[in-house]
Amino acid sequence: MAKRIVVLISGSGSNLQAIIDAVDAGRIDGRISAVLSNRPDVFGLERAEKAGITTEVLDHKAFDSRDSFDAALMERIDSYQPDLLVLAGFMRILTPEFVRHYQGRMFNIHPSLLPKYKGLHTHQRALEAGDSEHGCTVHFVTEELDGGPLAVQGTVSIEPDDTEESLQQKVHKVEHQIYPLAVEWFCADRLQWSEQGVTLDGSPLPASGYRYQPN
Ligand code: GAR
What is the CATH architecture assignment of 109-135+143-215? Predict the structure, then answer.
């Protein structure tokens, strides 16, 4: 049966768009039940509305604590009974209760080859380190920030003339390939996180996840 997906955003929503496009193309056996943003007036909300998807804004500034915001967010999310919760540029640290509630059915995308460069300014840090390779990762979310088991990684090469901006663009392009892929596999019951770790078609993946070759 088609899976119910809820997407959380805080910004432009280009990853959301890539997932909308893959759903519309029939690649993903699921539908996006709702898009929730913690920030009003972000472009990602327009993208969702244009695609005819229900949107909600839950402004974290209107809550007096992280706990109360996350509890309210959970209530809104659960009203859609999602099979999968997708964090797509959702820039909030989540409480342990929230993370535990969606464990095994919540993805995040991060702009680095995790476990390298958790947190912010990942492109700049890869450049400063003199890395020859950079990329992005889709992972299951755990209580450790940017620390959950890795599902899919896509790499880009760093060229001598790359800047933070050029690198960001290259990585974004690959994000838009690996996020729909991970969602597609999850919705087809091919990609799971269980006692055996992360598996694809029943076989354990390496700790770095499935290595996607960008096109
Ligand atoms: C993406 O690059 C994503 O990897 C990053 O935010 C951007 C959102 O772009 N997420 C994180 O840094 C999470 N730690 P988008 O709104 O255009 O999809």
Answer: 3-Layer(aba) Sandwich (3.40)
